[in-house]
Design brief:
49% of the residues lie in helices and 10% in strands. The protein has 13 helices and eight strands.
């Protein structure tokens, strides 16, 4: 199957969404609210007209929208010290300092995206609705995260049936500023490129149980690192109780696990560490049948298909240069 090879190629599918921003299901809290639906269309139109390289348009959030954000922000911030992983808690104060994370302010995607780029090269891109698994994962290969800009309906601040800006900015963004986690996320994205459809579904399941609902060991404790947990006041508490079943993260088994979308997860998978999870995803990716390997070139922001001797020589040359730098640095530290 076709896959993007340059970061500009993401423009080609960014609007191939499964549901448009203002088309809400009948059980959505905002379904009967015409003001909310009109507002959702405004956000959808921003994303629909966006192209790579443009600054993400700034949004003037209403007082009601800020109040919804404030409720979620305040309640989650109480839980982070005891429930969130170290990496999340290390980055969160930096987002407060540099990106306007406050109870009375919804940060702008452009400010957050610029900050992420300075930390790990990850960037945000506004999206009008849900993308297919293949398209969403392909974005991660370029360190691009497709982010919603709208906020959940104010009638129920603690529940959203879909990703919203609370989920993106409180759940995902802090971890994308961590180098090891950023690499882990990109590995899943790279593994998806040109993968057969059945493997895309499996990779999407691995993504679900790691980036969205993952737990990890830290010392003698288990902490949450999945964005679905870090942006849900109720599930963040529930996931660390005795109620759910907790299994070790093994991609070849995790990828087959069925999961509910609109209720708390009955099963979670625990990684030994991000490094361990990354290595396991790498090994799993090597079992995906495709006739070539790929690598991301950060200088050109493009995907290189490693299917010729010249490409392999270029890769070997690049690795040799990096190893030389490492050896030189080690000698100077002796």
């Amino acid at each position: 199957p076709w896959f993007p090879t340059t970061i500009q190629d993401l423009d080609r599918f960014a609007n191939q969404i499964l549901s448009y921003g203002s088309e809400l299901d009948a059980d959505h809290p905002g379904f009967t609210d015409p003001v909310y639906r009109a507002r959702r269309k405004e956000f959808a139109d921003i994303a629909y007209n966006y192209r790579h390289g443009q600054p993400i348009p700034r949004v003037e959030y209403t007082e009601a929208e800020k109040a919804t954000w404030g409720t979620v922000f305040k309640e989650l911030k109480k839980l982070y010290p005891t429930h969130a992983c170290h990496e999340h808690n290390r980055v969160f104060p930096l987002l407060e300092e540099y990106c306007g994370y406050r109870e009375d302010n919804i940060p702008q995607l452009e400010d957050v995206s610029r900050y992420l780029q300075s930390c790990t090269g990850f960037r945000l891109r506004p999206v009008a609705g849900l993308l297919s698994s293949r398209d969403f994962l392909a974005g991660l290969a370029f360190r691009v995260f497709h982010s919603t800009q709208y906020i959940r309906h104010g009638s129920n601040p603690m529940y959203t049936p879909e990703p919203d800006i609370c989920h993106e900015l409180l759940g995902h963004v802090p971890l994308f500023a961590d180098p090891s986690f950023a690499q882990f996320s990109q590995e899943i994205g790279l593994a998806s490129l040109a993968a057969p459809d059945e493997y895309i579904e499996k990779l999407a399941t691995v993504y679900w149980f790691t980036v969205e609902f993952g737990l990890c060991k830290q010392g003698n404790e288990i902490k949450a690192y999945g964005a679905g947990l870090l942006s849900s006041f109720g599930e963040l508490q529930y996931c660390l109780t005795e109620k759910p079943k907790v299994l070790p993260f093994e991609p070849e088994k995790t990828c087959l696990q069925k999961y509910p979308i609109t209720e708390f997860q009955p099963i979670y998978f625990v990684a030994e560490s991000f490094e361990d999870g990354k290595e396991k995803v790498r090994k799993y990716a090597s079992t995906i049948p495709r006739p070539f390997s790929v690598r991301y070139n950060a200088y050109t922001q493009s995907i290189e298909v490693l299917d010729s001797m010249q490409q392999l020589w270029n890769l070997a040359d690049s690795i040799s240069s990096e190893v030389g730098t490492l050896c030189n640095a080690l000698r100077k530290m002796e």
